Amino acid sequence: MFGSSHFESHHYNDFEYLKISKGTEDSANLVFLHGMFGGLSNYDALVEYIDDYNIYVPAIPLYEFKARKLTFTNMAKWLHSFMEALEIDNPILLGNSMGGHLALEYTVQHPENVAGLILTGSSGLQERDFGSTFPRRNDRDYVRKQAAITFYDDDFVTEELMDEIMEVINDRSNLLNVLAIARETHEYSMEDYLPEIDQEVLLIWGKQDEITPPKVAEEFHKALPNSRLKWIDECGHAPMMEHPEKFAFHLNEFLSELKNKSTTTIK
Fold first, then answer.
1. Are 16 and 58 in contact (CB under 8 A)?
2. Which of 112, 105, 115 has its CA nearest to residue 76?
3. What CA–CA distance (Å, rounded) separates 63 from 51?
4. Does the pLDDT at position 132 exceed 50?
């Protein structure tokens, strides 16, 4: 979730991001999008298993938007500005949870600029409803139980993570933004748009995901014309964190297929 990445953080204009070059200037671009309670470190473990791509992980400025403007439409505009500023062309988007929802909205707005999609625990169809408020936000034990729902393995809920979550939700301004994006996540369904997305889509889902349960993955799979679904057992809502090696196996297989397809099309 939160936490500092062990990769170097870059700043350009008002954007903060990771850029991890594991190929050449001509290598394809991957853009990884974190979830609502996520951060730059979320993909650190996964990156170790990926080669031959230029990887970008932007810090989505959820607490810098005014709460009333915190919509997926506006976040997709922000993402487009980020990609224009860094000259990221035709990327493959990978999104977890809210980041998957954002990837879908961006694809709807800019279908010509997305080479493929990977969704994991994505919102956009159905997500566990934690309500429109954050009750008992000063109760650390209560908040810990809510955070633990994210993972199959409770050991991922560290004291450092809890400190950062408590800092966010005990700041009134930040809390209002958390509640705003939580409402937007539930109210803004991608259902009507999914059949129009013709990019190749890989769905990687934790079998024990309690936030976007397996039936949500199956609904995405039915609605997206060119999708394939892969499961990871003993895994919750953030498979790229809990099982990065297994996640990378499915991801690299998918990336290889896209690369081969692209090469064949060019010939």
1. yes
2. 105
3. 32
4. no
Entry pTM: 0.93
Distance from C-alpha of 163 to C-alpha of 158, rounded to nearest angstrom: 9
Judge contact between 85 and 13, C-beta under 8 A: yes
Q: What letter represents residue 158's amino acid?
A: T
The rounded distance, in Å, linking the Cα atoms of 241 and 251 is: 14
Nearest-CA neighbor of 239 among 118, 72, 91, 93?
A: 118
In whole angstroms, what is the distance from residue 92 CA to residue 102 CA?
A: 13
> How many whole angstroms separate alpha carbon 236 and alpha carbon 211?
8
Q: Give the amino acid at 248.
A: A
Report helix, strand or coil for 12: strand
Map residue 94 onto helix, strand or coil.
Answer: strand
- Length of the chain equals 267
84-120 burial by CB neighbour count: b if 16+ within 10 A, else e? eebebeebbbbbbbbbbbbbbbbbbeeeebbbbbbbb
Q: What is the CA 137 to chain-centroid distance, rounded? A: 25
**DSSP H or E segment with residue 85:** helix 72-85
| Residue of 206, 185, 209 whose CA lies nearest to 102 | 185
CA angle 245, 248, 251 (to 5 degrees): 160
> How far out from the chain centre does Cα 70 lie?
16
Q: Tell me: the pLDDT tens digits for 158-196?
A: 998 899 888 888 888 988 998 899 899 989 999 999 999
Which SS3 state, helix, strand or coil, does residue 22 take?
coil
How many Cβ atoms sit within 10 Å of the Cβ of residue 124?
Answer: 28
